[in-house]
Amino acid sequence: MIFLVDTGSDVSCIPPPKDKRINNAHMVELFAANNSRIKTYGIKSIDLSFGLRRKFKWDFITADVSIPITGADFLTKFGLLVDLRKRKLIDTLTNLSSLEQNNLINVKTVSVNYHDILKKFPELTNPSIHGQTIKHDTVHFIEIKGQPVHAKVKRLRPEVFKETKKEFEYMIDQGICRPSKSN
């Protein structure tokens, strides 16, 4: 899959599959530079590699776009710089650069009414919750009285187990949950 690297795009998007049936649990509203609405279909997590010796896992918004776009949110999160002259991506973490890409394009930022709002509140369009700071002192816990509930263990089908494990590892990476320290 070839991605357009767009420093003028606030969010990263991919085109929807042909049937457009996707999990709509994380619906977001997007607007084009001309203020027209862009229909969205949910979120899809994708692993990318730009030849920079590390994987870039990101939640892309599935939207009515013609080609996949890596936007400013993706570039900022992973510390990637765009070298327009040499048409390369530079990884500030490893100091490696990608091979020359003819499809590496920069689209200039267009001033729209919503740009300032998105700049002030980037979490509105970023489906990832990784790195969010908690702004309260509330701690949630579940108080259990009596014996723990017990049920016979049932094995998951191998394909379900594989997907569940992948999702759990993703939630650990995002800081949503952590593995138990009990035996």
Automatic annotation (TrEMBL):
GO biological process: proteolysis
Gene Ontology molecular functions: aspartic-type endopeptidase activity
Protein name, entry field: Gag-pol polyprotein
Species for this entry: Nephila pilipes (Giant wood spider)
